[in-house]
Amino acid sequence: MSKSIAGFSKLSKSKKIDWIVDTYFSNAESAKGILKQYWNTNEKLQQLHDEFIENTITNYYLPLGVAPNFLINDTLYTIPMAIEESSVVAAASKAAKFWLDRGGFKTTVISTTKIGQVHFTYKGDFDKLKAFFNAIKPKLIDDTKSITANMEKRGGGILDIELRNKTTEIANYYQLHASFETLDAMGANFINSCLEQFAKTFKSEARDFDLFSEEEKEIDIVMSILSNYVPDCLVRAEVSCNVDELFENPAVSGKAFAEKFVQAVHIAEKEPYRAVTHNKGIMNGIDAVVLATGNDFRAVEACVHAYASRNGQYSSLTHAEIDGDIFKFWIEIPLALGTVGGLTSLHPLVKLALELLHKPSAKELMQIVAVAGLAQNFAALRSLTTTGIQQGHMKMHLMNILNQFGATDTEKKALTAHFKNNTVTHSAVVEALQNLRNGA
Ligand code: MEV
């Protein structure tokens, strides 16, 4: 039976652990042992991790893998990927190699605008609100000077602020809808600080605006927050080749493969049940790089799926066509990423991942991440439309099952050989391992 606790956050780490293991675990010592196993013996590094969040009791590891041979705009990259799902890194590497021999990936950043909003209510005449907004817009921008000075020096800052009337949707509801250029920063802190200053200035200036009645002077700020929806922070990645170059398997011509592949993409464009799984595969690649480079994968996920629904129905993020003899496959995706600030200068593995990627700008990282998504989708569709997904998946899964049953290196070797010609299922692996152990 669990119980509540007061003042948990004030306890020391070891007291927190004591309470957790004593309250929730039948074998407190064993639970403590597992938590300890994942601590880093380097005290400074452990402290760094402890302080990323609150109430830390240990570290939660994900594997960091790399996918080499990505040729992007004629530069070669080895892409770091933090992910727990087997097959993802192998699939990315395979797709990278495939396109390395066919000219590689071509990418362009289409736009880099980020958005933030001050949501407020105002009970009064809209024309007066408009006049007030136009009168104080320069002051709204001026009052943020101490926040924006550095960003402006580097060429970024506030791009514009608009007043938006949303009263047809919610009574008395308006927005200050602001756009920003945040350069190599993801920009969340910068944008939120600007917005909170806009809100302060807006509310206090309203009290002195002569045209407003007493009621109109009482503007109520509901909240000030960036939007993670960034449809104007867009990147495009593309691969293309002659359909004949897609030839890999004597049984299927390049043209037949291309046609089936394009059909699979069209299905994901039209059918939401398929689109969700199709896009999930894309996010396997995207999230893994976003995570490895210390970026906010929840923000990216939320945005990407809103973008996938922008035309009123959830749809594929990738597109494909055959134009004459040319097969073309591309993705256009919004990505708000940073290569400075946040975890990028704090987490040693994030720093390492960024160095591995030639210390990219945020724009370069957008292109690399989009490529990881496109490559992942290419690999998935190639398997799905040819051999099926399970063949590759289960081979990778084999190792997970063997690890789960504590297989030795010799057992792993023997069973990997065995399953080269046998179908991998959970029960088949368990049975084969038992047979091996029983000397059968
Ligand atoms: C599995 O994590 C991802 C796939 O299901 C993606 C897809 O179906 O396109 C293989």
- Which structural class do you get from the secondary structure elements? alpha+beta
CATH architecture of the largest domain: Alpha-Beta Complex
Within the CATH hierarchy, at the fold level, what is the topology of the largest domain? Answer: 3-hydroxy-3-methylglutaryl-coenzyme A Reductase, Chain A, domain 2
Q: Give the name of the CATH superfamily of the largest domain.
A: 3-hydroxy-3-methylglutaryl-coenzyme A Reductase, Chain A, domain 2
Distinct small molecules bound, one entry per kind:
(R)-mevalonate
> How much is the average pLDDT?
95
Architecture overview:
There is one protein chain. Helix 5 crosses helix 7 (188-206) and helix 8 (254-270) crosses helix 9. The chain has four domains: 8-50, no CATH class; 64-110 and 234-387, 3-hydroxy-3-methylglutaryl-coenzyme A Reductase, Chain A, domain 2; 114-227, Hydroxymethylglutaryl-CoA reductase, class I/II, NAD/NADP-binding domain (Alpha-Beta Plaits), CATH 3.30.70; 393-437, no CATH class. The two termini are 46 Å apart. It is built from 15 helices and ten strands. The strands form three sheets. The chain has a four-stranded antiparallel sheet. A four-stranded antiparallel sheet has the order 5-6-4-7. A two-stranded antiparallel ribbon has the order 1-2. The longest helix is centred in the C-terminal third of the chain and has 23 residues, at 362-384. It is of the alpha+beta class and 440 residues long. Bound molecules: (R)-mevalonate. (R)-mevalonate is lined by residues 85, 277-278, 280-281, 284, 380, 384, 389.
In short:
With 440 residues, the chain is α+β, with helices and mostly antiparallel strands. The chain folds into 4 domains: 8-50, no CATH class; 64-110 and 234-387, 3-hydroxy-3-methylglutaryl-coenzyme A Reductase, Chain A, domain 2, CATH 3.90.770.10; 114-227, Alpha-Beta Plaits (2-Layer Sandwich), CATH 3.30.70.420; 393-437, no CATH class. It is 47% helix and 18% strand.
